[in-house]
Design a protein that fits this description.
The chain is mainly alpha-helical. It has one domain (2-183). Helices cover 68% and strands 0% of the residues.
Amino acid sequence: MAKWSQIARRIRVPLGFLFALLYFWLARPSWRSMTLGAMVVVPGLLVRALASGHVRKNESLATSGPYAYTRNPLYLGSLLIGIGFAVAARSWWVGIALVVMFFVIYLPVIRDEEAFLRQKFSGFDEYARRVPRMFPRLTPLSGNENEPSAGFSLDLYGKHREYNALLGALAMMAALVVKMMVFFRVK
């Protein structure tokens, strides 16, 4: 499994672009589906933005902000974005492909990243015991107020180039509007 997780890590971004093309081809958006989808995409973008502003990769174990609720807020945000776009597309095939990609690509990558964090940070096992892998706790993990990344940092958000998720989501929504207007003659 370790070897597959390394392969999955390398192919996930190119596969994402391929998936975007398939997505656009299969999408049959409507104003209603896009509105409902956006209601899930926006929280996903917010979760990712907040998480990127709290994580100091390879420097310290992030346990504040969204990391006080879930160990993988960036992936949770991506999952929400994916679900939102599946709703916007109005295509079961897109939803099925999203689920398959999550289990085949992202779950092994998450496990591999957690193995790395376990080796790098002595407090990871205790953190993992108290904070769920994906679906968030209802209350934040307590006792992490003194963590170096305890507050949101706009500099970290920029350093991690998280704005690309927002730009990509806006571009795909715009493409769906164009597809709707041109191919489905929606007014």
